[in-house]
Design goal:
By secondary structure, the protein is α/β, with parallel strands linked by helices. The chain starts with a helix and ends with a helix. The protein has one domain: TIM Barrel, CATH 3.20.20. Helix 2 runs antiparallel to helix 3, helix 5 runs parallel beside helix 6 and helix 7 crosses helix 9. The chain contains 10 helices and 7 strands. Strand 1, helix 4 and strand 2 form a beta-alpha-beta unit. The longest helix has 18 residues.
């Protein structure tokens, strides 16, 4: 499972840093100028607030200077349109494409530590309408509801049919809101569900009409090679005209030996956000999870931990 899904199932499980072999190549901030580099990420803010910290230079170079996603995870019906508009406008002025994550479905994370979301499905769909209005026809790469499909049928009090309908509504509405946007339904990672099972879920949300593709490995650590093969297998099994994106934010050293998902030590940054993937199916490698933000064991889920950020950057080598 992804770290964002599981949240803080085990509290207080921070682990000490350890020395590992370097990944093959450090990410370069200039690797791909197509995607928007948000100057307001937690990493960028921490660097600005701590310029004399010995960790700051490496975090700035290898994390803050790389394009990564902006998560819309708060139920804020009166402000969401303006928030999306602000990001889309900044990217438009920069001539780049913003990466956005929609993370607000009711019953999110099965009520675990990343719980939250809209109070009900009617409210969620209205929130999606406002999100679409903020997009206003402009370019974006959009990831829909990390883990929602992968957790289908396991969340008490959330009828699968209703969740499926809301995911389909979100994807379809945002796809129609802009012919310059690319919409990807999150489907977990290669160590979770079989491609044939994912294909069935995709048909259940009419993915051929409600999305352009799928997103894999969000907030996880599986290797890029495994995820590319997984994405290609899912698309083939589905028989749909879909493509994919892969979250490469923290997979430079692959998963921990025990596949620990919650802030495992010894991980490394992966390939920086780029559309140069070498795969006809995979549109881009994208930093969907923001490196340095906790999975929930080293700190509250989503909080920025400079030691984690520095370790990820240092282990990336270069």
């Amino acid at each position: 499972m992804t770290a964002m899904t599981l949240g803080l199932l085990v509290a207080g499980c921070a682990t000490p840093a350890q020395t590992v072999s370097h990944a093959e190549e450090a990410p370069e901030a200039t690797q791909d100028s197509e995607f928007y580099i948000n100057p307001d990420t937690a990493a960028a803010q921490w660097v600005a607030d701590n310029p004399d910290d010995p960790r700051a230079a490496l975090i700035e170079e290898r994390i803050a200077g790389v394009a990564q996603a902006t998560w819309f995870a708060n139920y804020d019906p009166t402000t969401i349109e303006a928030e999306v508009d602000a990001l889309a406008s900044a990217a438009e002025a920069d001539g780049t494409v913003p990466v956005m994550v929609v993370y607000n479905v009711p019953g999110r994370d099965c009520g675990n530590h990343s719980d939250g979301g809209a109070p009900d499905h009617e409210s969620y769909r209205s929130w999606i309408d406002s999100f679409a209005a903020g997009l206003d026809g402009r370019p974006a790469t959009i990831v829909i509801e990390p883990d929602a499909l992968s957790l289908m049928g396991t969340c008490e009090g959330q009828p699968p049919a209703e969740v499926m309908d809301s995911i389909a509504y979100a994807g379809g509405t945002l796809r129609q809101a802009s012919d310059q946007a690319r919409v990807y339904l999150d489907i977990g990672h290669s160590d979770w569900h079989a491609p044939e099972d994912v294909a069935e879920l995709l048909h259940g949300v009419d993915a051929g009409e409600t999305a352009h593709g799928i997103a894999t490995n969000t907030s996880n650590y599986r290797t890029t090679a495994d995820e590319v093969a997984y994405a290609e297998a899912i698309v083939a099994a589905s028989g749909l005209d879909l493509t994919a994106i892969v979250d490469t934010s923290r997979n430079g050293n692959g998963p921990a030996d025990d596949s620990e998902w919650c802030d495992p030590p010894g991980r490394a940054l992966g390939t920086a956000t780029t559309s140069d993937t070498g795969s006809a199916v995979v549109d881009a490698f994208v930093w969907v999870k923001l490196p340095g933000e906790a999975d929930g064991c080293a700190g509250p889920a989503g909080s920025f931990i400079p030691d984690i950020a520095h370790e990820l950057a240092e282990n990336a080598g270069g």
